[in-house]
Amino acid sequence: MSLEQERAKERIAAELDRSRRRSNGLTLDTLDEGDLLAQHSPLMSPLVWDLAHIGNYEEQWLLRAAGGREALRPDIDGLYDAFENPRADRVALPLLRPEEARDYNDRVRREVLDTLDTVDLGPVPRPREAAGKRSLLEAGFVFHMVIQHEHMHDETMLATHQLRRGAPVLLEEGGPPAAPSPPAAGEVLVPAGPFTMGTDDDPWSYDNERSAHTVDLDAYWIDTDPVTNAAYTEFVADGGYRDPRWWTDRGWEWRRQRDAVAPAFWAREGGGWTRRRFGRQEDVPPEQPVQHVSFHEAQAYARWAGKRLPTEAEWEKAARFDPATGRSRRFPWGDEEPTARHANLGQRALGPHPVGSHPDGASPLGVRQLIGDVWEWTSTTFHGYPGFASFPYREYSEVFFDDGYKVLRGGSWATHPTAVRSTFRNWDHPVRRQIFSGFRCARDAGRD
Radius of gyration over alpha carbons of the chain, in Å? Predict the structure, then answer.
């Protein structure tokens, strides 16, 4: 085995361990059986479903598909098929109980580590050869896919924790960030011209991030920071939720049906706003990015502010494009993987950091906090890039294309560093707001 493969396998083993410790920390190590089996919201699965689904997905891809092994529990495949069982129906399934799920996951993991010892991880192909020619083991892709999948479900489980009623069970893991730095300006001008969007050669990338292609954009302004709670409160105070001028027809209908008057989990108390956060009731911190807003709310605020939501391409250019070199970076700050210095990721805190907290994570153009803190809604409907090819299965991306799902970018405080980069694409229904979603605004440069 080459030294490169040995190091790649060590990294994979370490990341597999981190993801499992996090999953268990959100379930088996934190809640009793009743809470794990309960459905805390029809929007979400019982937590025990997510836990065993993680193991079943790992078995199917790392043991069966990549390792060529026989199925350990073919009888449960149907129970943990996310497309066969809507979330609201999963509580009625004959699910593995918590200890059974732990035993099953542990058994899968032992065999996966045995497989990792013997498998040959192929090299990353040169970019011009990459499109449409991937294999499961290329640069360890299938292991990266499974690691990211587990962390995505960990974030989903955190959303379930937020919806759960009861005493707090999650502890803050990190201290406060360094004192925020004020922006030089509220907006950044992104110059007109082409940039490279997407990727051909990132070994952690999914099919919907590919292929790399050139996009030519007109000049535009984009907010330096995400919209804060303080700014959003001004929209609320100005009657934004009562004025249909700021809403699309669909957005207004959603607002009317939900009788929405503020972001999810906010409550009016006295002369101000409080929020419920993982079982704690607290004042809404004005300096943090607003979160738990739907696409419709983000779009209405942007109209009220005389702006709009950025397109997905505008968001990515602001995050990646380096005008000094003309290249697109993997992350706003460069190609170095995220650290606590760059971004608020990986559940280090149980919420966003104040705007301006991570100046070292700024993009070359000076746009800040593009990675971490809150997922950012864009105006773009989820679709495939030119040259898109499903890999390794249609149900990850392709079945969601052009069906009304809106793209979110950048990750949140709950997103693990291995599951986010400047090309990573998330998507959801425009009505969703149990997710850790916020936004920033943009506007055409020609309006000046």
Answer: 22
CATH 1.20.120.450 range(s) for the chain read 3-163
Tokens 């069970």 belong to 169
Q: Among 124, 90, 159, 119, which Cα is nearest to 375's?
A: 159
CATH architecture of 188-448: Alpha-Beta Complex (3.90)
Q: Report the half-sphere exposure of 280 (CA within 13 A, side-chain side).
A: 12
The CATH number that domain 3-163 falls under is 1.20.120.450
Q: What is the pLDDT of residue 355?
A: 96
The reported pLDDT for the residue numbered 183 is 76
pLDDT for 131 equals: 47
pLDDT in tens, 396-430: 999 999 999 999 999 999 999 999 999 999 999 99
CATH code 3.90.1580.10 region(s) in the chain: 188-448
Q: Give yes or no for a cis peptide into 23 (omega within 30° of 0).
A: no
pLDDT computed for residue 448 by the predictor: 54
Closest CA to 146 of 57, 67, 83: 57
Taking Cα atoms as reference points, which of 38, 271, 24, 256 lies closest to residue 150? 24
Determine the pLDDT at residue 113. 97
Bridging pattern class, strands 266-269 and 442-444: unpaired
Low-confidence stretches of the chain (pLDDT beneath 70): 124-133, 173-176, 178, 447-448
pLDDT of residue 176: 65
Is the preceding omega at residue 392 within 30 degrees of 0, hence cis? yes
Q: Treating both helix axes as pointing N-terminal to C-terminal, what angle do 141-163 and 3-26 enclose, rounded to 10 degrees?
A: 20
Task: Name the E strands within 82-237.
Answer: 187-190, 193-197, 213-217, 220-223
